[in-house]
Amino acid sequence: MRRKMAAGNWKMNGTAEALGEVDTLLAAHPAPSCDVLICPPATLLHRLSDRLQGSAVRAGGQDCHAAETGAHTGDVSAAMLKDAGATHVILGHSERRSDHGEADDTVRAKAEAAIGADLVAIVCVGETEAQRDAGETLGVISAQLKGSIPDGATGETLVVAYEPVWAIGTGRTPTLDQIAEVHDAIRAELSERFGAETADAVRLLYGGSVKPANAEEIFGVSNVDGALVGGASLKADDFGGIIAALDAS
Ligand code: PEP
Hints:
Layout: E1 5-9, H1 19-28, E2 35-39, H2 42-51, E3 57-61, H3 78-83, E4 86-91, H4 94-99, H5 104-116, E5 120-125, H6 129-133, H7 137-148, E6 158-162, H8 176-194, H9 196-201, E7 203-207, H10 212-219, E8 226-229, H11 236-248
Parallel strand pairs: 1-2, 1-8, 2-3, 3-4, 4-5, 5-6, 6-7, 7-8
Helix pairs in contact: 1-11, 5-7, 7-8, 10-11
This protein binds phosphoenolpyruvate.
C-alpha cells in the first residue's frame, strides 16, 4: 500500500510570521495518517524543521542545484537542504522550467543529486494548455518522465507530481477522467521502465488548484496518492482541510 501524501509548496511566500500557520496546522492535525510535507522558501527551511521537531510533518526544499558545492551564486545544494532539515525536495516545477529554463536533463541531474544526498525527489511534470489542446498531453508527460527521472529511482526515493501548467494557481482543474488518464499513464510508464513492483511503490501526486472543496473528489481518482498544493498550503485551515480529505480517502 502506498502511503498518501499532502505536500505544500509555499513558493516565494512567507517570512518568520508564516510559521504561526504551521503551529495552527500541527494543533489541528497532530497525527495525520498521511505523510504531510511543507516546502517553504529556503530562508525558512531551518526554522521550519526546528519547529516540526517531534511532529509527524516533514520539511522540504523547492529546488536544489545539481552540483555538491561550488561557484553557483544564489543556489543551494541538496546536501545544504538536508543539513537545514529537509527530507524531500520539489524538482522540475513548471515555474522552475519556465522562469529558469530548466529542461528535463537539468531536472534529472538535480534529482540524482537529491537522491544522492538522501532526499526524496518530487519530480513535477505537466502539459501546457496549448499542448493539451493539441492532443499532446500524454506524449509530453511521457517525454518529461523519461528525461527527468534518473535510473535507479525507487518508491522510497521518488515521488511524481502531475501538475498541468494551466491548472496551477488558476482555480481551474482537469476533469476527474483527465486526471485519471494521466495518472494511469504515468504508472504504466514507470512500470515499463522500472518494473511493476517499483512503479507500484511510487506515489503519484496531483497538483493544480487543489483546495478543500475539490480535494475529496480528486483523491477518489485512480492512481492519485495525494496532492502537491500551492496557494491552499499557505493557510492552516485550507491545508488542514486537504489533509483531512486525504486521511478520509
Ligand atoms: C503548485 O505550484 O505546485 C501548485 C499546485 O499551485 P496551486 O495549488 O496554487 O495551483
